[in-house]
Design a protein that fits this description.
single chain, plasmid, five-stranded parallel beta sheet, Bact_response_regulator, CheY-like_superfamily, Rossmann fold, 5 strands, 5 helices, alpha/beta
Length: 119
């Protein structure tokens, strides 16, 4: 099974995603501060990252740009997970290098489908 990194500043969103992912049999690493993402990627070597966009300290776009510079993240697939769900937001997220975009609120089934699609 794959290792999934979740990056979100909301404890409730972290718990919901953790539960949804664990139901699929994958393992989870959670980070609540975007500034800790690089060390988590180097330490845990996840297969996929689910990255919130609206966060304090550093937003998801900035975090993705930082990951692209990190050799340990060269094969890492990133999916944006956000309440910013307009067509423009989704297109912009994909143009930044995300492989997919999951709009909040979402269901455990949507998370499972997303994981199947990218793993």
């Amino acid at each position: 099974m794959a290792k999934i990194l979740i990056v979100d500043d909301s404890p409730a969103d972290l718990r919901f995603l953790e539960d949804a992912i664990r139901q699929t049999g994958h393992s989870v690493v959670s980070v609540s501060n975007a500034l800790d993402v690089e060390s988590a990627v180097e330490r845990d070597q996840p297969d996929l990252a689910l990255l919130d966009i609206v966060m304090p300290e550093r937003n998801g776009y900035e975090t993705l740009r930082a990951l692209k510079k990190l050799p340990a993240a060269s094969a890492l697939k990133v999916v944006f997970v956000s309440s910013k769900g307009s067509d423009t937001d989704v297109k912009w997220g994909l143009r930044q290098g995300a492989v997919d975009y999951l709009i909040k609120p979402y269901t455990p089934d949507q998370v499972a489908t997303l994981l199947t699609r990218h793993l």
